[in-house]
């Protein structure tokens, strides 16, 4: 999501910033995208439709990898997915009744957040959600738009209720490193080494194909990951991870 935001044009990024908010946006300086675009001070428009069009454009430009069908599986979304949805719930744009959310619900929440006046939103929500510092509030419009677009890109239907947005499972923090370790320990296969841009990871099986889609998205050492954890001999649970924006809590 870091490079997805940076890959937007200044006009697209302004559409993804809460209406009337201001923020510095520096893709070339911060993410080394080899562009001629320098630091810009953006004035938010909060235009969900145009923000979504920009995010969709960026995702469509990714090199495609073969993906398995997502039907019939249970998924857990973590990190940015969880932070953004948690904030939307606190702000009244998502129901508190369930941690399982559909793409359609995420889109509706993104549309609602984008349309709110940014200064009023910050005044209303400052200190309300411990997972969202005040400087991150103005970008939650983008975060939710991105999350919905990425899930749609994975192949989830608009109304599928198969993705849980969680920060913890049974009291333990959900993170891709723990999932990768469990996957390696539970596998009967001989571990093999798979190189990344920054280091070699020893996994008992190759990274899930969905991992490559999100790896292309960020290109960072701690890029989004997806691994498969067998929760029972007959059931598997997929854990999808998105690394948070720099303005989100670690």
TrEMBL record:
GO terms for biological process: nucleoside diphosphate catabolic process. Residues 231-250 are annotated as: Disordered. One of its GO terms (molecular function) is nucleoside diphosphate phosphatase activity. GO terms for cellular component: membrane. Keywords: Hydrolase. The keyword Hydrolase applies. Pfam families: GDA1_CD39. InterPro entries: GDA1_CD39_NTPase. Belongs to the GDA1/CD39 NTPase family. This is Uncharacterized protein. It comes from Haptolina brevifila. The lineage of its organism: Eukaryota, Haptista, Haptophyta, Prymnesiophyceae, Prymnesiales.
């Amino acid at each position: 999501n870091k490079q997805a935001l940076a890959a937007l044009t200044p006009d697209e990024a302004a559409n993804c910033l809460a209406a009337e908010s201001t923020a510095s946006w520096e893709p070339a300086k911060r993410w080394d995208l080899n562009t001629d675009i320098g630091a810009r001070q953006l004035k938010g428009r909060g235009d969900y439709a145009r923000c979504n069009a920009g995010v969709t454009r960026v995702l469509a430009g990714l090199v495609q990898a073969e993906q398995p069908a997502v039907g019939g599986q249970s998924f857990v979304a973590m990190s940015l997915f969880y932070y953004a949805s948690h904030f939307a719930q606190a702000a009244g744009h998502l129901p508190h009744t369930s941690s399982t959310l559909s793409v359609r619900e995420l889109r509706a929440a993104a549309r609602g957040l984008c349309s709110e006046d940014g200064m009023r939103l910050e005044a209303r929500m400052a200190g309300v959600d411990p997972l969202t510092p005040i400087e991150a509030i103005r970008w939650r419009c983008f975060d939710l738009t991105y999350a919905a677009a990425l899930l749609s890109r994975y192949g989830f239907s608009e109304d599928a209720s198969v993705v849980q947005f969680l920060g913890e499972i049974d009291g333990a923090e959900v993170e891709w490193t723990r999932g990768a370790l469990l996957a390696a320990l539970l596998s009967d296969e001989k571990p093999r080494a798979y190189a990344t841009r920054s280091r070699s990871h020893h996994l008992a099986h190759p990274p899930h194909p969905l991992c490559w889609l999100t790896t292309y998205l960020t290109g960072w050492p701690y890029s989004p990951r997806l691994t498969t954890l067998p929760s029972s001999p007959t059931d598997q649970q997929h854990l999808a991870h998105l690394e948070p924006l720099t303005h989100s809590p670690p």
